[in-house]
Write a structure and sequence with these properties.
single chain; mainly beta; five-stranded mixed beta sheet; four-stranded antiparallel beta sheet; 1 helix; 26 strands; about 0% helix; about 35% strand; globular
């Protein structure tokens, strides 16, 4: 399909339209704490309002009563369960790098759209060997089985959402031209999921290819691809080609997108989060490269990428707060293999947590703890009511060349 022109806005705009959303007070009505899991907290910390609990719980008599799935003195940490030995997508013949999952509740099948590093290569060959694959499982945490490649290389960073009419949308980067010639840089010297030493690592600073959407009425396709713009064409941001798109589709069909900028304007780190908006997924996108956390001195100097956005289900105690996860080690305690959390009452003003939401150690069901070399690309598997039930990451084991896999760790819902 024809590429739509990009619109650029160089002043900050919200990624949420308050004319179609209700602005909510941070003082959400009290709920009986017996209905929530009470947490141990630092005696020096006393919350005053629900916002102090990062909108992941309620403030009751100075203590945060955390929602299921969150823990910590102010509900800042994901409450993750031990991971089963067989989880996510861990194929012995290939590397994968984070997946985005939807549930087909009519069939009871979970569908993962995942970055696959082709030709038995590892992550060092992500550009240009990455393609988008389709995997399925009978369980939300897997194990998943790869079914097919739905967009050949180069295509990367799939993030999947549904439109209000049920259309499946996979936002990603790359044109999928399937070039394997020398000029394309396609890695052919890989063995046993490890990239050959002579393959040149290429970062995303001078990225090629558009931000695009694969869309279909069916989980299995056929798929149609539509380009929505080139981040490197944003005025003054020639190194913004790897947009790392993270969509949220609202009930009215409008799309709010978080995307990555690189050393642009008020972004003091290698990677910052900016926003884009479209009145409908198939319509023109307005891109705003201003850093979303520019007023937060700590977040603005922290490497932040791989956004994932969701809206909490509205109920009597939570009118539908907005949340985002990122690859970000804001505490600096996990050698970069960690995730950050941001939260918002109305989607207009966002706050970045000064604590990691998850770290680099995974407890397994057999009682062992495994320290990961890499833990990036966070996505959540949501149940049919919209509650997070599994955390998905692109991950790598310690001491394992550049082989990577897709990890799935259940979230405690009690």
């Amino acid at each position: 399909m024809m590429e739509k022109p990009m619109l650029f806005v160089l002043t900050i705009v919200s990624i949420f339209n308050t004319s179609v959303l209700t602005s909510h007070s941070s003082d959400i009505k009290y709920v009986n704490p017996n209905n929530r899991a009470s947490i141990a907290h630092d005696p020096s910390f006393r919350c005053e309002k629900n916002f102090d609990c990062q909108l992941n719980g309620q403030c009751f008599s100075g203590s945060c009563i955390c929602d299921p799935g969150w823990t910590g003195r102010n509900c800042h940490r994901m409450d993750l369960l031990p991971a089963p030995e067989k989880n996510g997508l861990q194929d012995t013949h290939l590397s994968s790098w984070g997946g985005s999952v939807l549930h087909n509740n009519s069939e009871g099948t979970w569908h993962m759209y995942v970055a696959i590093i082709e030709n038995s290569c590892g992550l060092a060959a992500w550009r240009p060997n990455s393609a988008i694959g389709h995997a399925t499982s009978s369980y939300p945490a897997g194990p998943y089985t790869l079914r097919n490649i739905i967009k050949p290389h180069f295509a990367h960073e799939p993030s999947t959402v549904r439109a209000p009419d049920g259309t499946i949308l996979i936002y990603h980067i790359g044109a999928g031209q399937n070039a394997t010639n020398h000029a394309s840089g396609y890695a052919k010297n890989c063995t046993h999921r490890c990239t050959g030493a002579d393959h040149k690592w290429e970062g995303g600073d001078t990225f090629y290819g558009p931000t695009a959407i694969l869309h279909s009425k069916s989980f299995a396709g056929p798929w149609t691809s539509e380009d929505i713009g080139y981040g490197s064409r944003v005025p003054g941001c020639p190194k913004c080609g790897d947009t790392n798109p993270a969509p949220l589709v609202l009930a009215n069909g409008s799309v709010r997108l978080m995307w990555r900028t690189t050393y642009f304007g008020d972004c003091l780190a290698q990677s910052c989060i900016a926003t884009a908006f479209a009145p409908g997924w198939e319509q023109e996108y307005t891109w705003t490269p201003t850093s979303l956390f520019r007023n937060d001195s700590r977040a603005s100097q922290t490497h932040i990428e791989d956004a994932y956005i969701w809206q909490a289900p509205a109920d009597a105690t939570n009118p539908g707060s907005f949340h985002a996860l990122f690859h970000s080690d804001v505490e600096g305690t996990c050698q970069g293999a960690a995730g950050g959390h941001a939260y918002s009452n109305d989607g207009v003003t966002w706050h970045f947590s000064p604590w990691n939401a998850f770290g680099n150690v995974v407890r397994m069901q057999n009682g062992t703890d495994i320290t990961l070399r890499q833990r990036e690309r966070p996505h959540l598997v949501l149940d049919d009511a919209g509650h997070p039930i599994v955390l998905i990451n692109g991950a790598g084991w310690q001491g394992d060349c550049d082989h990577v896999f897709t990890l799935a760790q259940p979230i405690n819902q009690k």
